[in-house]
Amino acid sequence: MPVRQLPEQIVNRIAAGEVVERPASVVKELVENAIDAGASRIDIFTDGGGRRRIGITDDGSGMTHGDLALSVDRHATSKLDDEDLLRIRTLGFRGEALPSIGAVSRLGITTRHLSEPHAWSLAVEGGVKSAIMPAALSQGTRVEVSDLFYATPARLKFLKTDRTEAEAIREVVRRLAMARPDIAFTLAGEERAPVTWAAALPGAAGRLTRLGDILGADFRSSAIEVRSERDGVVVEGFAAAPSLTRANALGQYLFVNGRPVRDKLILGAVRAAYSDYLPRDRHPVVALFVTLDTQEVDANVHPAKTEVRFRNAGLVRALIVHALKEGLAREGRRTAANSDGAALASFRPSFEPRPGNWDWRRSPAYPSGPMPGFEGSAATAFAEPGQAAFDVGTPTADVRFQEAPSADLLDRPLGAARTQIHETYIVSQTRDGLVVVDQHAAHERIVYEKLKASLARNGVQRQILLIPEIVELDEATVEQLLDRAVELATFGLAIDSFGPGAVAVRETPSLLGKANAGSLLRDLAEHMAEWDEALPLERRLMHVAATMACHGSVRAGRILKPEEMNALLREMEDTPNSGQCNHGRPTYVELKLSDIEKLFGRR
Known about the structure:
Elements: H1 8-19, H2 23-36, E1 41-47, E2 53-58, H3 65-71, H4 97-104, E3 106-112, E4 119-125, E5 128-129, E6 133-135, E7 140-146, H5 153-156, H6 162-179, E8 184-189, E9 192-197, H7 204-215, H8 217-222, E10 223-230, E11 233-240, E12 245-246, E13 252-256, E14 259-261, H9 264-273, E15 283-284, E16 286-291, E17 297-298, E18 309-310, H10 313-330, H11 336-340, H12 342-346, H13 407-410, E19 416-421, E20 425-430, E21 433-438, H14 439-457, E22 462-472, H15 475-483, H16 485-490, E23 494-497, E24 502-509, H17 517-528, H18 537-552, H19 562-574, E25 588-592, H20 593-599
Parallel strand pairs: 1-8, 13-16
Antiparallel strand pairs: 1-2, 2-7, 3-4, 3-7, 4-5, 4-6, 8-9, 10-11, 11-16, 12-15, 13-14, 17-18, 19-20, 20-21, 21-25, 22-24, 23-24
């Protein structure tokens, strides 16, 4: 087959396939144009998931008659001052959005520049331009796109349901709205009720307001401000406390110089920063904004500009990790129950009282027949046979209060220990409420932080066993452990081979006390099976420390003396990140006195 030059319309439709993948792509390109035009308000309307109609209206600078004529020509743009593609300061810059959209749909543009006496309109249908006509519009630009992909019917077959396409549009607008809280957005359509995000004040407070409007009140209440800067690169934004997590990484947002992007860089950096706080199957919610010189980032990597390439990706990753770790350490005592009210909700009564007066004679405690000596008397309900209804059995723990706590202990963040219930939970009293502490989770974090500090200082102190403990395991597990023997020795766990199916434990970390070596080694082997060579040594060592901390902490079921309980509370107050154990579970729940009074109707 000979080589031939394709017609211009076919070239345009092929190029459109790179830019216009689905209706959400059209919305993204048009809203970015509105943002670049300096709009303070952008209204988006869709119908049929964007397949039938997309309408974008803004109050930006608009276009002149001459600019409108050029705007639908390929590779025509107003967003590059020169030919330097390394200095991209706008969102759209390649000059392909409008001609690509016009090549596969019916496109109408009405715009007015302040220097013009009136507005102008232009239509493009299947890549064919109409004449420019006078129109009526006060200011800005209105773009109408209808019958998307009518010129390329094959592309229609790959679109999903209207609801799915509408949700993709909503996600695009959400990301752009998060990037520009200074702009008001309205999103409406047949598939949803209209939603408006009002323009927010400048600065961190306004950014948090917009993020809270989009990501929800839970994010706003648990958000931690983060910031880090070095060598002209600034990373700032908000990260949710470890109490707010999701089952996937879709709640992690990255913006580079105001451009929403998806980058694997953020996934690895966020995972590293939260590794000490969350279970492996949970993901945090973060919104990070990276600002750097335009020459340090390539925004033209992807046709749809959804990916970027950093000249110094290692620096950006290090700043993200540092910013998140510093913010999490600063707010280390936030817990799940403290931030989202789950603890308070769990105490609420499971029933509502019936309207009207309650007849006590319908109570289960009321005797079914007359009792000797109390016939006709209201006291019959409290006779000895009726007392069984009030017999709740013996307490599951010693809940007798100790002597009155001292004032200085009541003023401490975690208060004064008053009792232990179910040999697992410590109840302490503060000046304005009470705290319930999971003794195992709390001590687990304490031991973990001590292991890390000891390792960083001069190595973990170890104890030599008089008689090595022999642990029998399957051969594959033994090989895994022996392959990591050097890393385990870093934490004071010295092991040697003892035949094909056994390991001899000769030294253990002093912090663990009398640990169950067999159980510890089996847990370590399970974690090591999930490692890959790409996992940094530091992270592998922290996995070992976390597993050891779990085995070396105070177990549930151990009865503690009052002085031991108070000592644990004081250590928690002095330990960083004590709001969660190293598996991500909360270590304590705090209930304010005002909340307790609400539960009992006192407020």
